[in-house]
Amino acid sequence: MLHQLVSGLMTGAIYGIVALSLVMIFNATNHINFAQGEMAMFSTYVAWMLINAGLPYWAAFGATVALSFVGGMALERMVLRPFRDAPLLSIVVVFVALLLAFNALAGWIWGYVLKKFPSPVSQFSTGTSLIGAHELFVVAVTVLMLTVLFLFFRFTRLGLSMRAAAQNPVSARLVGIRVGRMLTLGWGLAAAIGAIAGMLVAPIVFLDPDMMGGILLYAFASALLGGIDSPAGAVLGGLIVGVGENLLGAYVVGNDIKLTVALIVVISVLIVRPRGILGRITVRRV
Amino acid sequence: MSLLTVRGLKAFYGASEALHGIDFSLSRGGVTALLGANGAGKTTTLRALCAMIRTEGTIEFDGRTIGGMATETIVRRGVALVPEGRGTFTDLTVEENLRLGAITRGKSAEVEADLDRLLGIFPRLRERLRQQAGTLSGGEQQMLAISRALMLRPRLMLLDEPSFGLAPLVVRDIFEILRRINADEGVTMLIVEQNARLALDLADHAYLLETGRIVLEGPSADIRADEGIQRSYLGY
Ligand SMILES: Nc1ncnc2c1ncn2[C@@H]1O[C@H](COP(=O)(O)OP(=O)(O)O)[C@@H](O)[C@H]1O
Ligand SMILES: [Mg+2]
User: Fold this and answer.
1) Looking at the complex, does the CB of residue A170 fall below 8 Å from at least one CB of chain B?
2) I want to staple B209 with a disulfide (CB 3.0 to 4.6 A). Which of A151, B36, B137, B194 is the partner?
3) Do A175 and B75 make contact, defined as CB atoms within 8 angstroms?
4) What was the ipTM of the complex prediction?
5) Dihedral sign of CA atoms A268, A270, A271, A277 in order
6) How far is A153 from chain B (nearest CA, A)?
């Protein structure tokens, strides 16, 4: 039971971190980026390539985060900007196209064979069978990232500008905020966070182009559950979904339908509280 | 010497022309009223000055042309709009709304001093600093919008119907505060109002707009004395 709980927390942390990247784009643009998981997967391949080229883990980690940040911004500038004023449906189509494109591109460049991805803490042992070193690492990174993001959005002028630009672009311009740049920055941040999530997941599930498929679904549920505009909510939602999924799978309904049950639970919560647990914004158009 | 000079200003919503080439100027440190019935083009004029819609013609601010600049850039030059509907960031706190007003000024002791000074002028806002701005009453949101604009330390302040939807006592307070800000700090103001009497009391100069054209202009005292104005706008 305790083991299920701990391993649930760990998966939950991963859902939470992917949910965090969804929240990031939502907070910057009011859109839910369905391609987020595939972008993270793609970044992870880049890290894998750098490591294989002989770079030490942390150098590859840093370079991947930086490249993803720039890549995310470039994506917003070149692919999404032309659709800025387009109807929601065309934007969704763009997201789906991005998803398919990244998936196909990764398969084409790196193939569909599962690849092993290293963990920076594999040589350590926690001295207990309850939780492995990598699991602990995942949880620690999640907590750290959440803290950093919270501080950024809550206490920096740039973070405040980003929130203002997302919530009310017209008023944001009227106080002098360069709204376009804020959107671009939001995409960069989301891509960087996604890259970290991918590099945390890969040592557990192996690296392949479909690595993030299921995870994104759970992350999406987590973000909605926690509140789509709340970074803390995203992680909390992730932990609840992760633990819930594990306990349900082990003790209640079995592994086959746990996804369905987990989603039903999330939807039920949203019917009672549409803003999510910590959210302030009701998702109206999903 | 005027702070803002507008010549042949046209403004468009899609293909339809809402301003048909208007000319006006605002004297430095003065208060100018822009009057007119509902739909005359008052809001459109303010939007045009802030580049929120497509325009033609020339707009000179402080001797430099600002036509063709982005809204953000014009704001950074010192033009603050208190928009129709107040433009509150409803999900942010009152304090965050105020700090956003000064977001382009960087972090400085002056900003903190301005915040403190405005909260002295509007004690209601101080009581509600941590509250979500969307929960404020209409009058409080108008005070917030004016304060947010002042946090920019603007050289020109554009006000779109600050009296709209407010109780007479609140309106009196707000206009008194505007008068003080203009007198004490020399902020130039362009104030749009349907309530002509109120605006003429505050302003030294006025323009009258009718369906996208300026039809009358002059010192407030003359406009107030104009018979046509009295009949149509002052209800004598
Ligand atoms: N967003 C808009 N789209 C199209 N037409 C508009 C829009 N806003 C205003 N108009 C039109 O422009 C004209 C001037 O409107 P407005 O400037 O809002 O008047 P006022 O502020 O003096 O009441 C009106 O005919 C109005 O119908
Ligand atoms: Mg109007």
Assistant:
1) yes
2) B36
3) yes
4) 0.93
5) positive
6) 11
